[in-house]
Amino acid sequence: MGFRGRIRALAVERAGTGLPGPELERRLIELGFVEGAEVELLHQGLFGGDPIAVRVAHATIALRRREAMAILVSDEAPV
Amino acid sequence: MSAAAPTIALVGNPNCGKTALFNALTGSRQKVANYPGVTVEKKVGHLTTPAGRSLQIVDLPGTYSLRARSPDEEITRDAVLGRLGGDVTPDLIVCVADASNLRLALRLALELKRVGRPVMLSLNMMDIARKRGIEIDAARLARELGVPVVSSVAVRRGGTDELLREIDNAVASLAAAGVSSWKAPDAGELRGGQREADRLLDAAVRRGGERDVTTARADAVLLHPVAGIVILLAILFVMFQAVFAWARPAMDAIAAGFTWLGALVGSAPLPDLLKSFLKDGLIAGVGSVIVFLPQIVILFFFILVLEDLGYMARAAFLMDRIMGGAGLHGRAFIPLLSSFACAIPGIMSTRVIDDRRDRLTTILVAPLMTCSARIPVYTLIIGAFIPDRDVWGFVGLQGLVMFGLYAAGIAGALGVSFVLKRLIWRHSVGEPFMLELPDYKIPQAKSLAIGLWTRATIFLKRAGTTILSMMVLIWVLASFPQPPEGATEPAISYSLAAMIGSAIQPITEPLGFNWQINVALIPGMAAREVAVGALGTIYAIDGGEGAAEKIGQIVAGQWSLGTALALLAWYVFAPQCASTLAVIRRETGSWKWMWVTFFYMLALAYVAALATYQIARALGAG
Q: I need a labelling partner for B107 at 20 to 30 A (CA). Which of B14, B97, B443, B490 fits?
């Protein structure tokens, strides 16, 4: 929790989702997950810490961990 | 291009305040219907601009992209591209954006520009953005973006003046729709669009605080893994209580009104058959449906408040994992909970679920939730057959049985959705759970009132058409043929309903049902609790005070415990509600899913009642 970083890449093949890779990639981008955007983990669910709520740039997005796996984030010390 | 009034389409991200803006612009001059062939709501309104122009406004479903992923978003795409034709082809597209959350909206605006129709960007909720120290250079944004940019505050008087002025200007020199260069963007194009949007944002917007402080504080509690769930359950408990308790006086009043109306007709100098049609068919039929109106209004009051507040997305977040285990979407939670009051508003509220499969699953299992119409039947049978004593010293046995019936319904619903997801739709792609958690906002009374009015009229229209015709059909079955002269049995014993009751006797025999139960089940299709009254008619008990107790005494003498338990099991699962089936037909837009629901529930009910009766008999209670 409170983990912060910057999106390095979208690697859809890492996501354990039923959605085809290109489709998942487009959906993530539509919700603002593009390379270079700042992200911060805000909340997680009770069971297995799933789903999670992520601050990306200026919006808060909820998603499941298996889709979030596609978002590669470079560790970055909080500014 | 439309001949008469120019059409303005409102397009924007979910939660951008688009509907509030639509309400502010059109007020009560709006109409909600469905787009042909789909169950997406079509909201069209009218307004007169300060310059005296008459305009038509279409509120299109919220989306992040024109690359449609759900039926709602397809409507937005097709309307914007002019594919739907008719009255929703826009002459001007107003892209509505939450001024405090512009990033994703700007990307959508860039996409809208490619459609080749005039576009305008409206920065909505400017008041909130200013309060949070966000400064937007609208002139710069307009220059960079290449479309007019105005600010608006939907919820304040005069907050739409600037927007209306700009619309007036735009409409005065309206260019014909150009050629659309839009095509579904691939990931690269989307990425490029977002980069461009981020550049615009850097150029024209200065941000103050990082997050909305109120939202951050509230979410620290409301989205807390444990506290969040406890609070959600508490909210649901209040909601559930309200639907039952607050609605009661209004429901009683409506029921009394219809009884009075029935009595009035009953004493009128009319032929008996006409009297019976008016009283038992029309008035009783419509009355038995309209009586649910208070529950529907209260339920939707809660749903709309929670939705406008921004809490609904949080509820889905909290419940996603729990619901997901049974193959249900997090958003299915509220519709299913609503179905404890009545499956009709529950099924109507599945519109919050975007994905078609998820929505269909929810609609199919919603009638298994124990609705309030089952309660009179449960109370009657439990009161007559289950001894009023405590088990383990403190739990009432009758209450325990009641709880068991609720639990059986829930287990049934979870089981069916599990089967649907894992066996029937196993090859289909699971919709991922991804949604924006908007900042909290205070709900506006006007939007609430308009929302409630819309729900109430939709329900009443349905009660007046589909449901009414089913009621009349059931009355015909229970009334024809007429009893012969000097008949001694109650009239229903000579009817088609009785014939059907006797005809299906061999089928219901293994369930322990006698012909009286079979007959009562037919008018019970109108509404479950009507079966209680029908039993009274069949056993020739006069209505009025204490009728239910008398029925209880008689059935306690005539039925075995096995039969009673089997009937309870039947009622947990049986599709004994014509109105629900009519609403499923309406909401899924197909007869197919109505019949699927009917037959799967019938099968479940039969198996459950059969097992119950046979086991009870084997244990000596048959």
A: B443
Phi, psi of B582, deg, nearest 5: -65, -40
Confidence of residue B374 (pLDDT cuts 50, 70, 90): confident
Per-residue pLDDT band for B68 (boundaries 50, 70, 90) equals confident
Whether B437 sits inside 8 A of A53 (CB atoms) is yes
Nearest CB among A51, A53, A57 relative to B321 is that of: A51
CATH assignment of the domain containing A39? 2.30.30.90
Task: Give domain status of residue A52, yes or no.
Answer: yes
User: How far away is chain B from the Cα of A57, in angstroms, using its nearest Cα?
Assistant: 8
C-beta atoms surrounding B228 within 10 Å: 21
Strand partners, A52: A44, A63
How many structural domains are present in chain A?
1
Q: Is B451 left (phi over 0), alpha (psi -120 to 50) or beta?
A: alpha
Average pLDDT, chain B: 84
Residue B187 contacts A where some CB pair is shorter than 8 Å = yes
Alpha helices in B156-310 (DSSP H): 161-172, 187-204, 213-222, 227-245, 247-266, 272-276, 284-290, 293-309
Q: How far apart are CA B473 and CA B247, in angstroms?
A: 29
What tens digit of pLDDT does each residue of B267-304 get?
Answer: 888 888 888 788 777 787 677 667 778 877 887 888 88
Of B125-129, B131-135, B326-330, give the lowest mean pLDDT range.
B326-330
- Is A60 part of a structural domain of the chain? yes
Nearest CA-CA distance, residue A71 and chain B, Å:
13
Q: Please write down the HEC assignment for all residues of B329-353.
A: CHHHHHHHHHCCCCHHHHHHHHHHC
Classify residue A1: in a domain, yes or no.
Answer: no
Helix intervals (H) in B490-590:
496-503, 505-508, 515-521, 530-538, 547-558, 561-573, 578-588
| Residue B581, helix vs strand vs coil | helix
Interchain contact B205–A (C-beta under 8 A): no
Strands (E), chain A: 4-10, 38-44, 52-56, 59-63, 71-75
Which one of B226, B321, B434 has the shortest CB-CB distance to A63? B434
| Cβ(B80)–Cβ(B108) below 8 Å | no
3-class SS of residue B566: helix
Is the pLDDT score of B538 beyond 80?
A: no
pLDDT band at B1 (very low <50, low <70, confident <90, very high): very low
Is residue A79 situated within a structural domain?
A: no
pLDDT score for B213: 86
Q: What's the rounded Cα separation, in Å, for the pair B475 and B490? A: 15
Q: Which domain holds residue A70?
A: 6-74
* Interval B467-486 mean pLDDT: 76
Rounded Cα distance between B180 and B170, Å, is: 19
Beta A52-56 vs B30-34: how paired, if at all? unpaired
Residue B399 CA to residue B513 CA, distance in Å, equals 24
